[in-house]
Amino acid sequence: MASIKDVAQRAGVSTATVSRMMANKGYISEATRARVQKAVDDLDYRPNRVAQRLRERHSRILALIVSDIQNPFFGKLSRAIEKHSHSQGLNVFICNTDEDPEKEAHYLDQMLQEKVAGIIISPTRNALAPLRELRKKGIPIVTVDRQVSAEFDSVLIDNAEASRRLTTLAIQKGYRKIAGLFGANSFTAEERLKGFREALKAANLQPLAIERPAAFQEEGRKAMDRLLQHRPQPDAVICSSALIATGAFEALNESGTEIGFGCFDDLPWSTLVTPRITVISQPTDMIGETAYDLLRKRMKDPKRTASHIRLQGELIERESLRGAEAR
């Protein structure tokens, strides 16, 4: 692979001249510029982006690494973070991991090579070690939707409390055979499952059944199919994520079964079906704005104590939990 020295030698100029031309800085005569460009083309030279970033005083790029861009929550969150970043003259790289630790590690390594100004990430359970390494190298980090460790700034809703409210509403409406669909291998789902169990325990009830599918639409469909085969059949189901809920409701609708239904995230279709869906709506704009603000503070003061912001989800009551007696 050609180096900047090879280009300089071929063009008969100094490495500083090559560097200035590649960065489009300072005056360079047209003749010299033509010689350097020819040398670059002949040698198929590619600038060292790491070296370029190291020479820059401030990167203008933020990395946003989300676990599933198909999830409407992360789509809205990405838009909110991009909006706030753009208003401050910063660009955003958006990466999607599909909850895959290997993809996540790859993107984190890439962001180190790019020397991004900071990272906002919804981490997998395997993220702690690589995030610590990035922090050692001076890259500020904020986690969203989940908390991988108290040592990193984080922004998320109070998942357990929100799940308690949603489940308590189902109980108050007269449902007693309540089942749950909570994502596998997810910090967020674990917190929501905890609130689900607590609400049932407070009412001297036990979960009828709990399924732990991967947080994808098709897996939610399969899990709901299994619940519908359960005897006794549940009279209500609580879902922990948007994609699980989408697949679950499809299965429920196709079966023609009428049971109570509640989920997290106010989905685009949640008011277009009958009955309309009772949901916990997450404040995505506020999460995005708060995460961006925390990242900016971390950039200015890398040694500040980590902040952990827990926002409140909004319980939006609709007809899908209208009451067991209304079935």
UniProtKB/TrEMBL annotation:
Q: Check the record and name the InterPro entries matching this protein.
A: HTH_LacI, Lambda_DNA-bd_dom_sf, Peripla_BP/Lac1_sug-bd_dom, Peripla_BP_I
Keywords assigned? DNA-binding, Transcription, Transcription regulation
**Which is a Pfam family this sequence falls into?**
LacI
| Residue ranges of the TM segments | none
Q: Which SMART domains does the protein's record reference?
A: HTH_LACI (SM00354)
HTH lacI-type domain sequence ranges? 2-56
Signal peptide bounds: none
Name listed for the protein in its UniProt record:
LacI family DNA-binding transcriptional regulator
Species name: Puniceicoccus vermicola
